[in-house]
Amino acid sequence: MIVAEAGTGIGKSLSYLMATIPVAVQNNRKVVISTATVALQEQLLNKDLPLFRRITDQNFSFIIAKGRQRYCCAEKLSVACGADGGQMAMFETKPKASDIAQLQLMYEKLAQGKWDGDRDSWPKPIDDAIWQTIVSEKHSCNNSLPAHRGCPFSRARSELDKNDVIIANHSLVMADADLGGG
Ligand code: SF4
């Protein structure tokens, strides 16, 4: 494990990437980078890791790991955009027609594979009130049903296994450690 703390612009990121990635790739191991802020995760994803891969000619893949709450529940979304009685029960107050239209669009895009269910990858900001009706939550999740194989959160988690470098955050890494790690 490496813990890096230094002023902005000193070169922490490139230093720890140089120290870890070639060794990990050589030994078929994963590198998990844990950051404190979303801004730093995005910097690694969009700038530091692509730059490092380009200048070193290393062949590795990377991905960002997000918490469950960044993904929608496909089951809730299908109910929320439906026209049956179950739909209304999901909202604390009567939803606006524009909210239902947005949910229907999200449902279609998810079904067509044109949206991955990640809140951050939807082209416009999603209102908190809408998101709360469809967010993936552990306590309401029953992933044993075959119909839930297309679950956005489960799919995102299985993608982590296919990548060499995982950009996470402290809370995810600590939660994972609390569960025994791995
Ligand atoms: S597995 Fe859980 S979170 Fe995923 S779609 Fe099914 S109920 Fe929702």
Automatic annotation (TrEMBL):
GO molecular function terms noted in the UniProt entry: helicase activity
Presence of keyword Nucleotide-binding: yes
Keyword annotations: ATP-binding, Helicase, Hydrolase, Nucleotide-binding
Superkingdom of the source species: Bacteria
Signal peptide segment: none
UniProt keyword annotation of Plastid present: no
Helicase ATP-binding domain span: 1-182
Name of this chain's protein: ATP-dependent helicase DinG/Rad3
